[in-house]
Each structure stands twice: as C-alpha cells, then as structure tokens.
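Worked example (supplementary).
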Amino acid sequence: MRAVDIFIQQILNGLSIASVITLIAVGVTLIFGLTGIINFAHGEFLMIGGIVTWLAVSAGLSFPLAAVLAILAVGLMGYGLERGIFRFTLERPTNGFIVSLGLIVVLQHVVVLFWNPNQKSIPRPLTTVWEVGGVRIASVRVMVILITIAVVALSFRMITASRYGRALRASVEDRDTAALMGIPVRRYITGVFVLGSALAGLGGALLIALFPITPFTGGTMVMKGFAVALIGGLGNIYGAVAAGLILGIVEGFSAGYGFSQWTDAYSFVLMILVLLFRPHGLFGGTSGPRMAS
Amino acid sequence: MIAGAQPNGPANAALRSLLPVLAVLVLIALVPLLSPSNRFLSLAISAGINVIALYGLSVLFGQTGILSMGHAALVGVGAYTAAILSRDYGIGFWLALPAAALASAVFAMIVGIPSLRVGGHHFVIMTFAFGQLLAIVLTNGGDYTGAATGLDLTGPVTLFGADMSDLTRYYLMVVAFVAAAAVASWAIINSPYGRTLRAIRENERLAASLGINVGRHKIGAFVVSGVFAGISGVLLAHFLGHISPTQFASFPSIYLALMVMIGGARLISGPLAGGILVAFLPEVLNLDPVQSRIVYGACLIAVILLLPEGLIAGAVQAFRRLLARKPKQEREDPDTTCTTPSEARR
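After joint prediction of all chains, the assembly is encoded as:
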C-alpha cells in the first residue's frame, strides 16, 4: 500500500470509532449538560445495548431489528433508572455520580452473572468490502458512520430548532422561570435522560457490529464519552461531534502507526488539558449544570 | 448516660469518639488467639491495608468534602515505590514507608494542583482520569515498571530482627498500622486544621472570606490523603509480593470510595467499619465474587439514597432518635458527625 492509501485507510477506521464515541458523547453531553446528572454508568448502557443486540442476533433476528430492540431496551432501562434512582439526586449531582458508580458495578456484574465475562460478537451485518484505489472500505464501517450522522443530525435539530428543544434549553437557563412558563421541567429531564440512554443503546448495537465486546467494555468507552463531551463543551452537540471526530481520528492514526498501547491515554490527556485551560470546552457549552456551590 | 464520661471538656468528648475504635482494634488484635484460618488472616490483612487508605480518604472526603476517584492510584504510587526501591536499591520495608508516603504525597500534589483548579464535579472526573492515566503509564513503562505483568517483591519484612512475613505477625503489624492511621486521622480531625477543612466543606466562600486559603488547604488535604495511601501501598506490596497496574486503576478507586461511604466518611469508626464490612460480607453471606459485587453496588446506591452519612452514622442516628423519645436534651458533640439534617445532606 502507498503511504497515502494507508493515510486514507486510517481516517476511515478512525471515523467509524469516532462515530460510536460521538454517540456516547452526545448522550453524555445532553444528560450531563442539560439535566446535571453525572451518569458514569452511561458506558454500561452502551454495553447493555451491545448485549441486547448480541442476544437478539443470536436468537435469529436481523441486525436492524436487533438494533431497534437495543435502542428500546436501553431507553426503557434509562426511564426506569431515572424515575427510580437519579431523580432523587438532582439536587446533589455528586450523589448522583456516586450512585452511578454503584450502578456500573451492578450492571457489569449482572451481565457477567447471566452471560459470563467472555467476549461476545455477532457476524458482521454487512460483509461487502469495496476497493477504491488501494483503499479497502468495509461497508459495515460506512453504515456505522451514516447511521451516526443521521441520528446525531436529528438530535441536533430536535434540541436547536423544535419547540421542545427551545423549552428544554429554557429550563436549563432558568429552571424556575421555565416552570412558571408552564414547561414541565421534570418531565423534560426524564425525556433527555431517556433520549441519551437510547443513543447509548444504538451506540452499543453499532459497536458490536464493529468489534467484539465484553461486559467491561463500557468502562473505557464512558471515559471517552465524558472526555469528548467536556472537550466539546457540555450540552453542545455540535461540539461533541467535532471533538468526537478529533479524538476518533487521533486514535485511529495512533493505532494505525504503531502506538496502539497509548490509544486510551489520549482522551484522558486531552480532557485534562481542556478542563484546565478551557473549562467550558473548545466549542463553548453550558458551564455545567447548576454547579453545586 | 455514663457518669464517668460527663466532665465535658472538649478534649474528653473528642477522645470518646476514638476510644471505641481503639477498643475494637484491641479485640481484633486478639483474634489470632482463636487460631483463625490462613484465609481469614489474609482477608483481614487486605481489609486492614484498605482501611489505612480509607482513613486518608475520610480526611479528604469526610472532612474537606472533596471526592477523589483516584485514591487507588495513590496507593499504587506507594506500592510501586516500595517495589522499585526494593528491586533497585535493596531498600526494605521500613525505609520504603517514608519514601512511599513522600512519593504518594508528591503525586497527590501533582494531581491535586491542576485538578482542584477546575473545581466542582469536574474535580472528580479529573481524579478518575489521572487514575486511569497512571495505570496506562505503568502498563507501558516497559521493564522499569514491569509493564502489564507488574513487579515482584522479594526480601522479608523484619522488625528488630524478627521476620514479620509470617501471616499472624503481619496481621498484628497491620492492626498496629490501622490503629496508628485511626489515631492520626482522629488527631487531624480534632485539630484546628481539621476545623479549617470542615469550614471549607460547609461553605467555601465563607471560609475564603474568613481568610482561609481554600485552594492551599484543599491541596493539603489531598496530600494528607496521599500519605495514608502511600503507607497502605507499601504494606500491600510487601504483603502480596507482586503488584500489577490493574490493581490501581480507577475501579479499585471506586471500591475504596464505596467502602468509605458505606462505613461513613465523617466518623472515625467509618473507614474501619466500611473496610471490614466490604471484606467480610461476602464470606458471611457465602457469595461468589460476582454476586458480592452486585450486592456492594446495590448497597452503595441504597446508602447514598437512604443513609447519605453511611451505615454506622445511620445506625447511631436511629439509636439516638430512640433515646431522644425520652427526655430530650441537646448535646453538642464536637466530633465530626453532623446531626443536623441540613449538614447531613451535603
């Protein structure tokens, strides 16, 4: 392969990883940025999305159907957890964070308990590989990228342009005033949480289409999600997409050019630097949800 | 209640919070008389080593109100310091103790200065990221850190010429260290310094307006927690004889935070109770590791939602409430528990 082909190849590989990271990051940026819930178990939501997909495909369902099931299941789980647990921590985000750590431990090990800790994979939903010049393009990666673009664009439009999005942003600006204007703030919080969870479910389905997953996949993925969300600016979907692209491509290159053992370090280093020098993110965001004094 | 405890000097009352812990530790030190199994002793030693680290975490979280998700990383710095000193310079246990305490304290400062600058919830995320970074660096450290397989420690731990590597002796030594950690953390809590930290916890702006250098004291508390962690790391490294990066990544940190919260971060008995409970509950309930982790996670969630001060404080409060049905009198406890609901919520 020529050097330029390798280069393009790495960009493509990086883009598909970036897609999954972006899906998590959009979920995190919406939930953390707009409701103030710091849910570190978001990576486990993703993992469970992957597990549901794996179960459904193993049971003979087609991949698209399995992905829809994953979205529904994780969205439902998000609803249950928000109503049952997180809504009691809205006033104390740190407590919500600690609770989510407990949730990580519970969700990981429940999955281990029922479906053992081994790697799980599904047959690739699309097997075609296109050869363009010297570059091999796996259609499954293209599928992941396209789905992510569509879903993120839809979420972006929902937040920025629709009535609901406007009401949501109003309730982030000033919860009390928004409530006085007749916006059902609590219901919006639940809604955002469920939307973010559903995105994680989709992310899990796409992830298992690309790579095998284990019950512990969520741990590293969620850190990347938080890194991207914070780098892009909390609550800023556009920023999350941009930061997700940067991180995905950096990771793709690093893996492609022989530094794969450092791949996981970039997100942490980038995040630490951004928090230090641009606490509102590179692209501007909410200053974090009503910081506890 | 007890006539002897009545002369209510503040020092006396403060001492009252320490005595039960020391009494329990004396009982624990007597356990080898019952000739317990090796398995029990190993479990107890691990629990004790955790408890030492937890006393550091309780100063940081319980007193200053800063939650660190990188505490296991500080333990790891101590453990690796001990292992590398022993390998490269043949330095044994006792000299490694101050060296590791120093190394962990310095690492805490390096992490703390930038992390505390960002403040708020972001601090927690920063400590988490630093913990993960340390594990990655240790894994990629090549021969110097032993990469993913980690390092071995050889050489016995001796005290006045006696070999302490025997399980029972090591157990007694760990109990002594736990007692020292408890006394140290008690001394910090009841010093003017402890009061300063609590002032920061309760209201940072007010504390700053009183002339307290909030930033410096927060970093100070973080460094203090590092000293405890470093000592715990040395004990851990010499006990296990082998250490590896995954032991000090962020998930062990989560378990440490969990233990201190289950026990109650503000009580002097909290770390002891949390460490013992988390170590022995699965034995008592006969759970396998997977089940016990599910139980821990669920406990943590329940504790945060229902008893935010931890199990022990919750039990004490319930007990006091029972007593308070009879003649009700306000008693001012200068120990670190807070009985007013507004404080408890924090």
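Two points are worth noting when inspecting this output. Strands of chain B lie at 151-152, 158-159, 162-163, 242-243. The first helix of chain B runs from residue 10 to 30.
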